[in-house]
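Hello again, I could really use a second opinion on something today. I've been puzzling over a protein and I'd love to understand its fold better. I'm sending you its amino acid sequence along with the backbone structure tokens. It would help a lot if you went through both lines with me. I've dropped the whole record in just underneath, so have a look.
***
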Amino acid sequence: MKKIFLATILFFPLITLAQSGQFFLKAQVSDLNKPLKAYLYYDSEGKSVLDSANSSNGTFEFSGHLSGISKASITLDHTGGGRSKLGDKRDILAFYLENGNTNVTASDSIKHGIISGSRINQQNSIYKAFLSANKQTFESLVTRSIAATPEQRKDSTFRKNLSELYKKTAEERELLQIQFIKIHPDFYISYLALVEVAGPIIDVEKILPLFNSLSVDIRRSEAGLAFEKTIDMAKITSIGAMAPLFTQNDVNDKPVSLSSFRGKYVLVDFWASWCGPCRAENPNVVKAYQRYKGENFTVLGVSLDRAGKKDEWLAAIKADGLEWTQVSDLKFWKNEAAKLYGIRAIPQNFLIGPDGKIVGKNLDGKELSQKLQEIFGH
């Protein structure tokens, strides 16, 4: 099921493995003997930084302060028109920037640059080589998808086969990533791989052992500690745990408490009117509600709609035929109930039993139907 994610620093974070310091970056593009300008883009202390340097012989030098490690990029302006006018075919090299000395050497194009003097980028080279065959498979699927004829794109069998191949390739990538993490527990890149494997909806049983296998330096780093808190939040909403209680206003601005549903099976459904995947999943929730609403089952919708967008929320409720109770504080991703449940992607749901304990979570249409059949016997 597709989901919309909250963009957070956890997906490609700045990780503090050492104290704040200074970086020195030297890029040498040997076959360029004309005036050029290079742009360096990176993050420092939570802020985006764009630096530039001019050169007449292809040598560019940058320096600055970092509080850890940042994803970065160097872009060469071969035309003199400025970075904003370079378009999609810009000459760019993505890498990791860390304190100390880093060198980039290339011939006529920075995008083919070779990085040296950087431990993190050496790790990343090992990581990319480890995943290279899987990456080639994925790229071949992308090429096949782009090259598909109009008739093939209309063919359900063709689409299904391609979708299954994408899924298989993604599953193989995850297995490789887990293997890499176990082989290199002291690599910063292993931490990033783990964050990708975890995704926005964390499976604690799978992710916690992998996190604990990382080196102490990484686990005790600023980003490692933040990720540990995210895992702890996932524990709070694990199956068997008591569902965190909350109260929010319904569509008539009257407070509704989750505790008022005690004694029933209630599906707490996090969604939003602006969320395409949520709207696509709503018919499945409607179907479940209509089938079991007379059997001690109901739904409580929690919307992550924005302030000032109540009309859009109400219109979506009507359009999608959502007959159950709906609540929201109209705080977008800062919805208090969503924060309480650690929501970083929607749609997402939690099935709560009559005793207030979580008995299921992240149930899409088929899974929800199967779970309710298991509970009610039909």
Notes: Residues 156-183 form the longest helix (28 residues).
